Amino acid sequence: MKNQLVNTTRNFDTNAPLFSLTVGQFEELIAGQKKEEVVSVKSEKKIIGIDEVCQMLDYKKPTVYALVHKRQIPFFKPQHGGRKLYFRRDEIEEWMQENRVETTAEYVNERVKGNSL
Question: What pTM does this model have?
Answer without folding.
Answer: 0.55
